[in-house]
Amino acid sequence: MAGMLTDLGNVREINEDYLGYHEDIEKRIYVIADGMGGHNAGEIASKLAVDTTIEYINSICSLDDLEKVLKEAIQFSNKKIYNISKTKDYLNGMGTTITACLISGGKMAVANVGDSRCYIIDDNSMRQVTKDHSLVQQLLDAGTITEEEAYVHPNKNIITRALGTFYDVKVDTCLIDLKNVYKVMLCTDGLSNSLTDDEMYEIILNNDNDTACYKLVELSKQRGGKDNITVIIFEGECKNDRNFAGK
């Protein structure tokens, strides 16, 4: 069973994060988004991104190319958010991150725009499979800062790519064989900015999905919880929740 939780955090008045999922005999879909914009525009953008992406995938007859389907769904969502943002002044400039997984036939397509992340977990490690579209990631790629400096960088919240801010958007995708993948985690930066990968891995390793989500959010809030916090944890190759091998 998938576990999921979204939380306002300790500081924000509105939760601009949003999550959604769909499961049937043919496929599984998991999506998170972290909205941005004035008033409640970020909240609107993130909900549109998640709901539209899931609806688009469910309207597709063929899942022969998971990456293509997922990319097209997100690009469709981008255009919808962009067009709606032009209808009212208070919506102008709204946008959102998005990270989504589409699973079928033992394969998982992962797509992202922005700095919400996807991690895969096996017996021995947790690995980030998405790459942040952020200023800090650009500095890391250029060798200007170290991983340690990135973790505490004051501009961690600046993203370089978002859904809905332009009519067209570049979507990064990858395809993963779920064999030997026990768990998958999606999270917004409210979580990944507060906890290290090792801390997240230990919590996921030693708890069921629902409990892990709760503990991850609570620890993030204990660290300050300045942002909204959203996490989804679900099974990889196995269909039912279980402990790790040897646990």
Low-confidence stretches: 240-247
User: What is the subunit organization of this protein?
Assistant: single chain
Gyration radius, in Å? 17 Å
Alpha plus pi helix count: 7
Described by the principal axes of the CA atoms, the overall outline is globular
Count of distinct strands = 11
Spatial separation of the terminal alpha carbons: 18 Å
Q: Strand-and-helix sequence, N→C?
A: EEEHHEEEEEHHEEHHHE
Q: Which structural category fits the helices and strands?
A: alpha+beta
Q: Approximately how much helix is present in the residues?
A: 25-40%
Average of per-residue pLDDT values: 92
| Beta-strand percentage range | 25-35%
Sheet with the most strands, sense and barrel status: 6 strands, antiparallel
Based on the model shown, name its key terms.
alpha+beta; six-stranded antiparallel beta sheet; five-stranded antiparallel beta sheet; 7 helices; globular
Explain what the structure shows.
By secondary structure, this protein is an alpha+beta fold. 32% of the residues lie in helices and 26% in strands. The chain is built from seven helices and eleven strands. It has helices at 41-59, 66-85, 135-141, 147-151, 189-192, 197-205, 209-222, and strands at 3-7, 17-23, 28-36, 95-96, 98-104, 107-113, 117-121, 126-128, 172-177, 183-187, 229-235. Strands 2, 3, 4, 5, 6 and 9 form a six-stranded antiparallel β-sheet that branches. A five-stranded antiparallel β-sheet has the order 1-11-10-7-8. A hairpin with a 4-residue loop joins strand 2 (17-23) and strand 3. It is globular and about 50 Å long. The protein starts with a strand and ends in a 12-residue tail after the last strand.
